[in-house]
Amino acid sequence: MSGIIEEYQRKFALFFGAKHAFAFWKGRVALYALLRALDVGEGDEVILPGYTCVMDVNPIKYVGAKPVYVDIEPDTFNVNVSLLKEKITNKTKVIIAQHTYGYPCEMDTIMNIAQSIGISVIEDCCLALGSKYKGKVVGTFGRAGYFSFQWNKPYTTGLGGMVITNERDLAERIESLQAVEMCLPSGREVFMLWAQLIIYRFFVYPGTTAFAQNLFRYLTRKGVVMGSSSTSEYEPVKADDFFKGTSAIQARSGIRQLGKMEENISHRIKMAQLYDELLMSRGWRNREYNRDVLEPVMVRYPVRITEKQKALDQAAKAGIELGSWFECPLHPIETPLASYDYKVGMCPEAEKASIQVVNLPLHPRANEKTVERTVEFITGFTQAF
Ligand SMILES: Cc1ncc(COP(=O)(O)O)c(C=O)c1O
Q1: Among the listed residues 348, 342, 332, the one whose alpha carbon sits nearest the alpha carbon of residue 74
Q2: Which residues contact ligand 1 via a Cβ below 6 A?
Q3: Distance 149 CA to ligand 1 centre (A)
């Protein structure tokens, strides 16, 4: 493994006070490595919220396990812990605590339930880099945490993923899987990622995001650029080269951004507060959660509205950066839900949120002006509950 990747892993682990960190090509690969290292396989069940990205479900299917969905709590969009126990069977091996949009899950309850019956908890921190629960950073409660550095995440290296853990045995198991089964990205993949990082750095700003996203999706379908997910990844069939390590370009970019992490975090907190204030001043209700316990560092600011599609269409024309995820319980809308053991009606709160929620930018390129413009735009619509 190249020195720069080792340095990235070391610095990432240090940021969390974790003993071990392992970088991968994508977040989903990090989860796959973790499930394999935890010996999750045929016949096992893995619990996760029914409000997620299908790329979080694929690794569960790849190892032969069954995803079991729990409905969400409507204010934080996280797993509703009062429904958790009834989903546990003697086949349950892992609970994935996904910290949605950056809101920390109710970790005390999740850990108590899991520990009382000997189930592993792993934390999906792909949307929550730096969020805290009772003063402790998320990713450090369960046996391991995993992260994504795809375009929409707290920081991006184009694509990227990471696992952190304090458990030596688990770390050794990941190391041996890497040594035996992991492949490296091809020269073409690394070159395309590099080109896309340059384009992102110079051309993607709040006013141009909708245009860039549409162009990017079109070029991905044509096979000209490498999207976050290939079309085949919307079916639960693992590609031969799925288990892929990270590249030096991703590691270099990651190290640069870790250096700016405190700034990134305080910017997100400040912009989220501004959204709270401006929306409230226009009579919108803010999300309700215990602010003494949960300290979210949010990836995007979610709001519920009555005419989601109309808002997305108008935003694209007006140069407003509006996110649509999650568009369905297993985002995106193209996901064949039945192939993933999801039946419509299973998670009513998640299904309702998918129809209502749009998310607003908080990233370092979104400044006070962006927030003001976005609030002006979104309050032209009706808040939904
Ligand atoms: C909550 C969540 N977990 C995991 C992933 C997978 O991350 P990646 O796209 O890096 O594989 C995503 C995807 O965007 C996600 O939103």
Answers
A1: 348
A2: 26-28, 52-53, 55-56, 98, 124, 126-127, 148, 150, 161, 228
A3: 8
